[in-house]
Design goal:
By secondary structure, the chain is α/β, with parallel strands linked by helices. The chain has ten helices and ten strands. The strands form two sheets. Strands 1, 2, 4, 5, 7, 8, 9 and 10 form an eight-stranded mixed sheet that branches. The chain has a two-stranded parallel sheet with strand order 3-6. Helix 4 runs antiparallel to helix 5.
Length: about 280
């Protein structure tokens, strides 16, 4: 982290394979030296946040993401709790980042999931990164819930899709959310696509109040991009970059008003949050 880090926190929302747009946003901010002091993500946003927090450049993350076979049929299960296993995500994280702990990230990181038994929000602050990502990306009905400490965890989008409140708790003064929802829906051709559309429509209808917590909401124009098609990564990246560029002036003004914080101050805020 730089000598006088910005008081900027980023909350990256879910969106399945549309998540590549997050990387374009990160690139636009990075070019203006707007590296965040805190990152929190839900679902696809959790993956983007994790790779970036562990030091991988946005273009490299985009190229790596092309190798993800998240919804492949070989993950089919016979469980009554879900159609597919989400183990592929865990293996993917460990292949490219290793068997790492969340607290070892270069940028302070948090990941949001939901307890499907209670409806409670679960925020991963420490522990296995791959396990946290598996839980956060576990779309109900599509994937079997991830079992963690006796809890059945699923996609955090059902409790906070763009987790701005967590970024605030982590100590960021300027909170920017990236919302990949409401990009239009394509006619589904499989049961998985029916479930994904239903899940996304429900999330889009409930997300509006979350934007009220953010200082800035970046909303890439993603109409026509499928939730399940990984072949549009370059276009999604470009749209994320475009939307990030459009928000730069507003973000820079807010960051300048907030002023820099010393590394010691930010570390103390983050430690207090970890202990809470």
């Amino acid at each position: 982290m730089e000598e006088d880090p910005h008081n900027l926190g980023l909350a990256l929302g879910g969106g399945a394979f549309r998540g590549t747009a997050h990387l374009g946003v990160l690139k636009a901010l990075e070019e203006e030296n707007l590296r965040p002091c805190a990152l929190c993500g839900t679902s696809a946003g959790a993956m983007a946040a994790a790779f970036y927090a562990f030091g991988m450049p946005p273009e490299e993350i985009r190229n790596v993401a092309r190798n993800l076979r998240w919804l492949k049929a070989t993950n089919l299960t016979f469980s009554k709790l879900g159609l597919l296993s989400n183990n592929e995500i865990g293996k993917f994280i460990e292949k490219y980042l290793g068997d790492v702990l969340i607290e070892d990230s270069t940028i302070p990181l948090a990941i949001v999931a939901a307890d499907i038994s209670t409806g409670e929000k679960v925020v991963f602050k420490t522990g296995s990164l791959s396990t946290a990502i598996m839980a956060s990306t576990c779309i109900p009905g599509v994937f079997m819930p991830t079992q963690v400490d006796g809890k059945m965890l699923v996609d955090g989008a059902i409790v906070e899709n763009v987790p701005v409140s967590v970024v605030k708790e982590m100590g960021a003064k300027v909170c920017v959310g990236v919302d990949l929802g409401s990009g239009g829906y394509r006619q589904p051709e499989t049961l998985v696509e029916v479930l994904l559309n239903a899940f996304s429509i429900a999330i889009d209808r409930s997300i509006h109040h979350q934007g009220d917590l953010a200082d800035v909401i970046i909303k890439p124009s993603l109409a026509g991009y499928s939730l399940t098609d990984s072949g549009n990564s370059m276009k999604l990246y470009a749209e994320g970059y475009r939307s990030g560029i459009m928000a730069l002036d507003e973000i820079k003004l807010l960051v300048e008003k907030a002023g820099p914080s010393s590394l010691e101050v930010l570390e103390q805020k983050f430690k207090s949050w970890l202990d809470s």
